[in-house]
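Quick one: Alpha/beta hydrolase from Comamonas sediminis, structure tokens please.
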Amino acid sequence: MLKLPLDHLYRAAAPDTRAPWLLVLMHGVGSNEQDLFGLAGMVPPAFHVLSLRAPYTLGPGSYAWFQFGVNPDGSRTIDTAQEKASRALVAQTCAQAAQALQIPAERVVVGGFSQGGIMALSALLTEPQLLQAILVWHSRLLPEMAAEQVAPSQLAGRKAWISHGTADNVIPLAQAHAIRAALQAMPVDLSYHEYPCRHELHPQELQDSIAWLQALTGAQRV
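--- reply ---
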């Protein structure tokens, strides 16, 4: 494993890759680094794959990027201190991993599912210099970090995959629509998709996501 601020699992890119990429993945609430690392075998061999463990322990093998509560009206209240600390750790981890692997920011993709996707979105909007693209499954945009977003012009050239389940029973589809509206107002190359599933990765969604990753490696900034 690499020496990084967050616990993780790592799969190296194929040794004959001329210009390797880095894919950093973050799990949802109550899971751990093993979860999305199970997808590593599907990720194109041009990618180093890094699956992170969130820093806050909920129970054995169960972690979160930040704790939250659900209000009677369905809105959520987050632990803003935990979110900010996690965001800083994610940025530090991405930067150190890219440096250790000699991957320029132009070949870094940060992604995640549910709360992990929240962290990826926040990374794009607050630390775009660290990455080229985000991969976000079944997630939402945090209003709490809006004041820390960079100017939209700093997002020029960045790419985003956003997908959601039409029957998501944890994060309503309306949240994905809100992400889509926000990113459409920015100079981001957005790929938005919906799938007939609940709060889980649909097989076609996963297949399409992997194809999108593969296409990135052929459309790299020079």
